[in-house]
Every structure is written in structure tokens, then in C-alpha cells.
Amino acid sequence: MMFSRSPRIGAGLAAAVSLIALQASPALAFDPTGNEIADTFLSLLDAEDGTVESYGSVDGSGGNVTISDIVITKDGDEAGKVTIATTTLTDGEIQGDGRLKLSNLGLQNLELTADDGGMSLANLTVTGVLLPSPEELQADTPPVGPGYKTFEASSIEIRNEEGKVADIARVASSIDAMDGELPTAGQFSVTGATIDVKQIQSEETKSLTDLGYETLTVDLSGSGKWDPETATLVVPELKIDAKQAASLTVSLSLGGVTREVVTQLNDTSRKPEEAMAIVQNVTIDSAKIRLDDDSLTGRILDQEAQKSGVETPQYVAGLTGTLPMMLGMLQNKELETQVTEAVTQFLNAPGSLELIAAPGAPVPLSQIMGTAMFAPQMIPQILSVGITANQ
Q1: Is the Cβ–Cβ distance between 94 and 40 less than 8 Å?
Q2: pTM of the entire predicted model
Q3: SS3 category, 134
Q4: Which residue, 121, 223, 230, 336, is most buried by CB atoms nearer than 10 A?
Q5: CA dist list (Å): 147 to 21, 45, 136
Q6: How far is residue 117's CA from residue 82's CA, in Å, rounded to a whole number?
Q7: Among candidate residues 15, 10, 4, 2, the one with its CA nearest the CA of residue 262
Q8: pLDDT, tens digit (0-9, with 9 covering 90-100), for 282-310
Q9: Considering only CA atoms, which of 256, 251, 248 is closest in space to residue 293?
């Protein structure tokens, strides 16, 4: 597998590796182990702002190199430390360009501590790994992240200064197909991310507490397939599912996503302004957004009705009664009627709301952005937007 400037689907791996400060330093702080694969891996952990303080034993047998008890400290932060109980490097191969290729990378019992909190995970397994060379990591524009085929981490705990704020049962992603160095298909999921709402101080979490949530469990999942020959990108489903609250599902089909566009986006991943210019000719072929209620809408309506000093049905009636006036800006009577009927039905009996964009011909993003600036009320018309409730 070739090293790539990792797709957005691969963000999980980049995040995990950044936890252990995957950067290069010009000199090694640790004593060489005598095992070339182990030393190459440890040199990547020996970061510019961190140091591999120590490791336990190094054992190489049957294609596996096992390193025990790695300890990494962060320069200038007395509390900053990463410990990894067991690291397993399988089928290691140092390539001519200095990259480290592994069929499998396994970490067990990783613990990160810092002055503002920390995290831990029980297991992390990555297959088809291609780690960048120290020279690539030292460059002004380093690779976005390591190349890989599958990534899975389990039993993750995240802490702040006050203690645990979230548990995540499992994070997984995969790159399922490639076109040279560019990924063409992949998927990801986050399962059982449970947030302790009381431990996070913000306006958003206060609102959740007011709605009766002490914890919130969220699942995320998504997949995508890019066909470079037809220049189409299809996202069948991107879903955020908050238990006992609501789920949001997005699907879309884009055109004009050429190899050149993808390559340029990778090259400008840290320059949003340039990225916006690159996607001007990308088109929206179709899109769908669906909200499925699981008690959140009722909680909000009850809360707002209580603030207004009325019963919920009376509050809903007043709210839906103002819809025609609010929607007048659309300057589209047919859509205005459609939205009013759908929203009224949803608010009286919360089930689902589905918004569909099905233009007769692909619409360039440049046209959408121009319309948003000068005539935003026309966007529903150029995208042929429709809305339904409780279907």
C-alpha cells in the first residue's frame, strides 16, 4: 500500500498518532535497542517537544517486534507523559526513502497525562501501516497523516482537570480501495461515545443539562466512494445518532471531483481559502438531510413552553402560526406551503423531517455560493428542494 496524504476518513489514525507526538527530532534521546525496526519506530516517537525517556524489553521473533513499557515525556510540561505498556510491530520493513512499513501496529494500554487532563485506551490496532520518514516529518509541509488500511481503537477514556469527561467504546475506520496514492473508498465509525455533560462547562452543555441530560451517548458512522473516472463522489450515509435525543443523517452525490481536484485539496489542506477556490466547479448532484427525533424535540418544546408560561400545545400552535410569515422570504409559495405543512406536522407529533435537494441538472458550488451572497432566497429553487415530515 502506498503512503498517501491521508483522506478525511483517515482522520482517526492521524489523531491517534498525534497523541504520541509523532514528529521527528534530529537526534535520538533514547539508547538504541539493537533492533533496527524498534529503533526506527522509537525515533518517530522521540519528538521535538518530547523525549522517549525509557522502554522496557525489546523482543523480536516470528516477524513481530515487541517493545514493552515505552515512556515519552513532553518538554516543558512536568505533567506531560505518554506510557505504552506493549507495542507490537509486525512484518517491519524500512524502505529506501526511510518510511517504515508494517503489516500491523498494535498498542496496548496507552496512557496520556497532561496538565489539562489526559486520555487512555486499552487497545489500538492498525493494519497496512506506512509511517513517514523523519525527513518528511521535519518538512515545512509534513504529510497529513500516516497511510493505513484499517484502524481500530477500543475502551477510550478522555479526562480534563476535573476527571473523566467521556468514554468511547470503539473507534474504527478503513480505506477500502485506492487509485494510486489516492483513496477511493472508505468508512469510519465511532461507537458508544458517552459524554458526562456535567463535567464540560459550556453554554451548549448547560443547555443539555437544562433539558434533563446528565450523560449523552453518541454513535457516528459514515462511508464514501469516489470514482476518479467519472469524477463523482458519493456519500451514501453520514450519521450522527445521539441516544434519547435525535439522529441526523446526511447523504449526497457530488460531481466534478477529478483527480486534480483531490490532489490539490490534499496539497492545500491547511489553506481553507485556496481549498474554496479549488472546489468552485464541483457540483451538487443530489443531497438529503434527515432528522429523526428521539425525545429531543419534545424536551425543547416543553422547556420553551414553560419559559413562556403556557402549555406545550398552545406554544406549538403559536409557533406554527407564525411560519407563513417567517417563510415569506422564500418567495416560493409552493415550497412555503410544503415547509409549513411538514414543520407543523413534525412539531405536533415529532417523528422525522427530511429535506431533499434533487436539481434537474448538477449545480456548481460557485453558483450556490454566488446565490447565497446576492439572492439567498433562490437557493431552494436552484437546488429543487423539497421537505416531508414523519415518513
Answers
A1: yes
A2: 0.84
A3: helix
A4: 121
A5: 16, 17, 13
A6: 12
A7: 4
A8: 999 999 999 999 999 999 999 999 999 99
A9: 248
